[in-house]
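Quarterly update, task 2.4: nicotinamide-adenine-dinucleotide-bound model.
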Amino acid sequence: MSDFEGLRALVTGGASGIGRATAELLAARGAQVAVLDLDPSTVDEPLLAYRADVTDDTSVRQAVAAAAAGLGGLDVLVNNAGIGARGTVEDNPDDEWHRVFDVNVLGMVRTARACLPHLRASAHAAIVNTCSVAATAGLPQRALYSATKGAVYSLTLAMAADHVREGIRVNCVNPGTVDTPWVGRLLDAADDPAAERAALEARQPTGRLVDAAEVAGAIAYLASPLSGATTGTALAVDGGMQGL
Ligand code: NAD
């Protein structure tokens, strides 16, 4: 097996942004890839596409079972589906906290739970969670979102410990601000989109937003046997935002 040839991968949130770039990169390198998304209508061959809502355990179980059957097994889960949230602790009511945690944290838990029996049967099993620089950077106006990504970071470390002896590696990527449709929507909603974009660019020492393909490259590395001795780590893809 080359590093990607023959790998069977499931990418959640794979119809857009980081997930889409990851699904396309893995497929281009020879992996067989299935996408799980709320709206997979734009996903084309050779990617397999399955509709599911990660807040609905039954739909996740059904989609994962169908994807594993379609791929003939599972080696890789890219746990990537997620949503944003703005504001301080005073801005979002409890039900909004529950809603965003349900997608960003429990969504990853449900998907991992459904995938683990399949991953145990793989010789190259890996889970990569899409976390965020927000998990550790202390970003303003991101209390709820940051808390969900802090949970994803801790979940990654705990899962790595739980499953390492089963041969399943668990890592995460911590992107900075990535040029995806999500960030496009965020900019569209700003009073001054150009000024908001400039502020986001200035926050990263590289002076530009991260490209979704650059996050996909990091995820692909952590998903493949190239990183076979690496588990329980967070790989920053943040234009030097933390650490420089
Ligand atoms: P995006 O909005 O472009 O894509 C997200 C995808 O997830 C969409 O296809 C959407 O349909 C799907 N999705 C959302 N809720 C879902 C649900 N309940 N069930 C199934 N699918 C669902 O977003 P993106 O920017 O590519 O973000 C992907 C991940 O990257 C998220 O976890 C996000 O927190 C993380 N992230 C993004 C950035 C950024 O700046 N864009 C930075 C750090 C981390």
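Highlight for this quarter: The radius of gyration is 17 Å.
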